[in-house]
Amino acid sequence: xxxxxxxxxxxxxxxxxxxxxxxxxxxxxxxxxxxxxxxxxxxxxxxxxxxxxxxxxxxxxxxxxxxxxxxxxxxxxxxxxxxxxxxxxxxxxxxx
Length: 96
Known about the structure:
32% of the residues lie in helices and 25% in strands. By secondary structure, the protein is of the alpha+beta class. The protein has a single domain, classed as 2-Layer Sandwich (Alpha-Beta Plaits). The chain has a four-stranded antiparallel beta sheet, covered by helices on one side. Helix 1 (14-30) packs antiparallel against helix 2.
């Protein structure tokens, strides 16, 4: 299933800046950055549970905000993209 995750981490303090880096790093482990604080992640149900737990453990819920949108398996019909920065196909081959 395709997950869209957005976050807003309060960076007014050094600990906030550290949380921001940690949240971004976690997101990069699971998906592709499509905008500064927006990630598309192709996950199965168990990966989503782990991903959500890691993110919620990394943020300060009194200062930060995270939104997770489940676009499901038929996500290609739900996404429209215009302009630059085309996102690679997450279901295609990945060369390292």
